[in-house]
Give the backbone structure.
Amino acid sequence: MKFRFWRYQIDLLVCMIAFATQPVLALHEYDFPGIGSRSDWSKAHKLFLQAILTRKNSSHISRDQSMDAIKKAIRIYPQDPSFYCELAEEHLDCRRYSEAFEAVKQALELHPNFGRAYYEQAQIFLKQAYNDEALQPLETSATLTPNDPDVWLALGVYREEPGSVGSPEDAYIKCLKLVGCRRKLSPFNDTAESYRVLCFQNLGTLRLGQKRYAEAKTFYHQAFVSDTKHQFTDRLRGEIDYCEKSISNSLSKI
């Protein structure tokens, strides 16, 4: 088991090699799609980015502003599937699931192999607790857009569910590899630091459940170091302290 743990650590150092030969399986999702007016797309794309940035502000006022921005982007340039994925995100934030599903459907009508659309479809199912239905679109998204850390983080969480198939650890490690390679993230993605915090924290929790306290402590410490915004400071300190006490108790029994 120790060998497996250190293999994961080595994997994080060789990510550039691992992905250098990754085949291109889908459209580069956030470039000009190659149809219609590039000038119109450029104007609409600025609104698309504005909508994402405003939505992440997450206030009720900004929610209306971001919805208006993405709808305007679609009116200007209706041929970009990523715009409909953002529209789906907007509807999801308001729990308008049928509207979100319709937006995903429109994205896939434009580009049936648009990986982000399958990710959004999975989120619609997950938000409604239809976990079984979420697996196939998540796996499809991972195949079509293997460089999206959102997909691997979601797969890791999904695979922690009882009865699910696949290793959550492998999914978290894949996510860490992607953000550790300084790869350009998509407009939808969060910061590399946020993925590191969540993945290391989840890996620590997996190890804690297995009573492998030393490894859990290492992962929690990595999450603590990555948490530059101090969003999880108290929780991570508590988990590290718990691991240290558990290690001490185990040694005292020897």
